[in-house]
């Protein structure tokens, strides 16, 4: 039995590791410091070989940051409602809704964003539209993280604090946040990693492939690493473009890995 | 009572009267399960009232209703003729007025001194609280054991000491009523004795309602005794009298450590 389990476990570990190694192997020819810090900034995808991908990295990080900025207070409110005010039936309904939201394919969100925000609300293809869509996508993950972070706080501590006449706001500030900050940050970092790895929804709602570097405002379109890779990968005949795509993919992978590792590290500080 | 600078401007003025806290036809349902059924009793202005009964009788739920940690109950609870549902200063203020100490000590991740003053408003915590901390720890019979390490983490205390710290923390708010949910469960005999001494001393100035499974303790604490079973009050009376001559079959069965069947 043990041998069978090990046989299943080995590919589960080796396959992702092999993928990562292969990405870095392919990226090697284009992976250098000028890819990020070079003064020649990439404006048009296919002509960007050897140019800096800093605008794309900035675009991806801006989308991610704004998405988290929008999603965090909403997720926080959901988690607090779940903890303090929701009845058992409300809790069941809420968790079912969050699971349903999590199960919707990201491309569907992208399509909805295109119709509702880009066309109906006329926000256009912009940083704001993409961030709102990403915020909706990461909301279930972030809400679940916060709900579980708060649920791990011993009930006795909350009751003891309430028994001392502390208001619910005081209980949150003085008991819950200090006790669960590492779990909250872990959830946030995982959500950031998720936002950073989404491509399909921002393809319709936030990004353009060429012609821009930095967004002027939240209503401007952005370029992003994800769509940059998508664009370059279509240039199958241009070997340099493919190498740059691999290098961009390696950079994106490093960013996502960075957030995931930070999340893992923060779990050490879990005191609940 | 101790001399402290607690701000009591929002606390209603209390007049001395026989029945200070009155519970009338209190009923509680949680998730459609009846927990309390037509509970009626009263607490005098001073003295200890002990609440006994088998596990699941609703004793802890009753304390949570009195403290408004459960607020979906029916019936009436009044303190000095004021319904606690119409408490002018709000639920949070009411909970400062009615101290509740749980069975399992819940210590906050802070120092011993900070734990004592945890429930005070921010402004008062910033002021000099040395006297208040001293007085409360004396009353909780903990001062001698912690006076040299007030700034050390409270989690370093033993369970018995933590329980007494919870008592000191509740006393720092100068409550007018004290509710205790098995305060000496899982404590060593010495800690148990120290808490009982504190309670008897405190009961001279305030009503105390104490849940216990320890019949010997109920005897020692004296005062009024209430026997609860299956969400109902079965029998009340003076503790010595009730424990020696129970009138109801359920009480007799419980006192003989037999299975309580209240149906």
Give the topology.
The complex is a heterodimer of chains A (272) and B (263).
Chain A (H helix, E strand, L loop, with lengths): L1 H26 L6 H4 L16 H32 L2 H16 L2 H15 L6 H25 L3 H9 L4 H30 L2 H6 L19 H9 L5 H28 L6
Helix pairs in contact in A: 1-11, 3-6, 3-8, 4-6, 5-6, 6-8, 7-8, 8-11, 10-11
Chain B lengths: L18 E12 L2 E12 L2 E6 L6 H8 L7 E6 L2 E2 L7 H7 E4 L10 H5 L5 H5 L3 H10 L3 H4 L12 H13 L5 E5 L7 H14 L4 E5 L3 H7 L2 E6 L2 E7 H6 L4 H7 L8
Parallel strand pairs in B: 3-8, 3-9, 6-7, 7-8
Antiparallel strand pairs in B: 1-2, 1-4, 4-5, 9-10
Helix pairs in contact in B: 5-7
Mass-distribution shape of chain A: globular
Percent of residues in β-strands of chain A: under 5%
Order of helices and strands of chain A: HHHHHHHHHHH
The major beta sheet of chain A can be summarized as:
none
The description of the largest β-sheet of chain B is: 6 strands, mixed
Low-confidence stretches of chain A: none
Task: Please tally the helical runs of chain B, counting DSSP H or I stretches of 4 or more residues.
Answer: 11
Radius of gyration of chain B using CA atoms only: 18 Å
Mean pLDDT of chain A equals 87
Biggest interchain interface, per-side counts: A-B, 18 and 23 residues
Q: So how many helices of chain A?
A: 11
Distance between the termini of chain A: 35 Å
Proportion in helices of chain A: over 70%
Order of helices and strands of chain B: EEEHEEHEHHHHHEHEHEEHH
CATH class of chain A: Mainly Alpha
Note down, in words, how this protein is organized:
The complex is a heterodimer of chains A (272) and B (263). With 272 residues, chain A is mainly α. Chain A contains eleven helices and no strands. Chain A has one domain (52-269): Orthogonal Bundle (MetI-like fold), CATH 1.10.3720.10. Helices cover 74% and strands 0% of the residues of chain A. The two termini of chain A are 35 Å apart. Chain B has 263 residues and is α/β, with parallel strands linked by helices. The longest helix of chain B is centred in the last third of the chain and has 14 residues, at 189-202. In chain B, helix 5 packs across helix 7 (159-171). Chain B has a domain at 19-104 and 179-255: Rossmann fold. In chain B, a hairpin with a 2-residue loop joins strand 1 (19-30) and strand 2 (33-44). Residues 1-17 and 258-263 of chain B have low confidence and may be disordered. In chain B, strands 6-7-8-3-9-10 form a six-stranded mixed β-sheet, with helices on both faces. Chain A binds chain B through residues 88, 154, 156-157, 159-167, 174-175, 178-179, 271, and chain B through 31, 67, 69, 92-97, 99-102, 104, 106, 108-109, 118-119, 166, 169-170, 173.
